[in-house]
Amino acid sequence: MQLDLAAHVPAGETRETVQQLLVQAGKAGMFGEALPRPLGSAAWSEFAHSLGWKFSLMTEEFAAVDGGLMLLLCAHYLGLMPVMLASNAKPIMRAVLPAMRACRAGDPQLFAYAITEPAGGSDVEDGHGAQSYNPGVVARRVTGGWSLSGRKCFISGGDIAEYVVVFAALAGEGLDSWTGFLVRRGSPGFRAVRTELKMGMRASSAAELEFDQVFVADSDLIGRPREGWTLNRATLNLSRFPVAAMGIGLARGACQTALEFCQHTSIGGRRLLDYQEIQLQIADMVAAVRSMRAALWQMARHNRRPRQLEASLCKFHFTDRAQQVCEQALELVSNEQGQAAYWIEKALRDVRLTRIFEGTNQINRLALIEDWQPRLLRSRDGADTCGV
Which residues does 361 contact at the CB level (< 8 Å), separation at least 6? Predict the structure, then answer.
């Protein structure tokens, strides 16, 4: 609550409480969960299931407490994922492993993920929109590497991250030439221009980044040239499961807060929870949270190569439903001016962002159909139309 109400700070600055949290999280191994010990902090047994499920568990638990701090801690993994998925040995050795050691030593070195551009948000996350999009960040070949120019926006943690994975089109080509580049904080020509004054998840920054002929060595390519679009899609298909879990966690927290409020608040000499109309609303909220979690676990748990269909379905359906749960919870405490009402109102502001990043929910609906379309076109008898 303190960070949600705090005044906006300039790009690149962090409040002391935020810095302390990042230091503590790094020492506890919270930023190394994508790698097994001794490279990271995860136990080998955790890799018996998919990373999408593992990070869904983590994000739900954090989001159930606070959306902004959850994003502050978890956006790091979105930036780390393309580096791990590309399996380039050089960036892993030069950046990932030293960053993990620094985090454990109390120097949090985080990663960020930069795809969205001022002139293109959903276009860079949708196959149809990408066909006609004119890329804003362009990479030109120079001696020993590449020169990046342009801007990215709405980058979670982009102003405080030590490393930013930037997707740029090659000069004179379209979005199908997208290539991943690893840019380090402090590189000449790279700066965070500003951060957004957000409605929700305010503890985590959303930065606009400028690249003015930023040099990136060949050894800091993420994947090979022109593999960026495929790598971006793979990253989003993995990360949309945890985004769905963010919504579930926020809905769960709102539901729990409303339930406690109804247990301890009385009207007309009776607890709110004793009124049947209140019981009906609580039952709907509990059923929504539990059914969303069960469906997410079913689709994410063994999904080692996440398909766009399942990932997008979870993302748009569960975050839409999560916002409805938060609205129901707020209605139950609408006459209360205390902490319960503030927390649920905050959860409602926080949950709105889950319907926007990792592709808007409209784009994710189209992504489901895009992934499913070949089967639909081959089906002549209509038996495949429900996807069962």
Answer: 315, 316, 319, 320, 355
Cβ atoms of residues 40 and 102 within 8 Å: no
- Which among 302, 305, 314 has a CA at the least distance from the CA of 59? 314
User: What are phi and psi for residue 165, nearest 5 degrees?
Assistant: -85, 115
Q: Which two tokens mark 26?
A: 């790094």
List, in order, residues 6 or more apart from 93 with CB less than 8 Å away. Answer: none
Rounded Cα distance between 83 and 92, Å, is 7
Q: What are the C-alpha distances in Å from 97 to residues 25, 28, 167, 193, 233?
A: 17, 16, 22, 28, 24
Q: Look up residue 270 and give its two tokens.
A: 């009776």
Strand partners, 190: 211
- pLDDT mean for each 10 residues of the chain (388 residues): 91 92 96 90 90 94 96 96 89 93 96 91 62 83 96 96 97 92 97 96 96 96 94 93 98 96 92 95 97 95 83 96 97 81 94 94 91 72 56
**123 Cβ contact partners less than 8 Å away, ≥ 6 residues apart:** 129, 130, 133, 175
